[in-house]
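G., the chain you wanted modeled:
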Amino acid sequence: MNQPIVYWQNDPKWGFEDVGESTEDLGNVGCLVTSLTMAYNWLMKPEIPLTPKDMNDWLKENPDAFIGANMVVAKAAEHVGLSAPEKARTRGKPGDPRLVEALKEALATSTFTGTPKGVAILHVSKDGGPKGHHFVLARVLDDGFVAVDDPALGRTIDMPLSTLSVNVYWRKALKKYAVVSVIPVSLP
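Predicted structure as tokens:
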């Protein structure tokens, strides 16, 4: 798999599936499950890519992967063969330079192979404020921009690395995404 698969969390094939052990569905609250699915496919490069439904079903078999509809990222990643330790997560307010440095480190390329060491799940605010509302997947740094796969939009957006914020239309409303947390995800 050379090209990333960008999933839309509200796809009719899985959008109505319950997340974890909750009654909330992937279409409404499945951004983190969908982001982990995209991370898995990008890093593991399986012959048959997982869908968000596959990931959700797989994680439902592991009771410590969810607390209701909330996915426990470190445990969920571990269950699918990835590493995303909570201690590696960087939290801050929008514009915090530590978030930029954490993202650069997560997306750094191996000097030996020239391939990316990992990706990062970004917790973003949808109003530019300090509270996170949504999860997206950051894959690649290129010319001062980060390729961000957004499961709410089902497409890739370019986010300036310098600000880690971008305006997007989300459900027909203009939103200002601002990163408030960087969760590095890599192979163990």
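Residues 31-44 form the longest helix (14 residues).

Shout if anything looks off.
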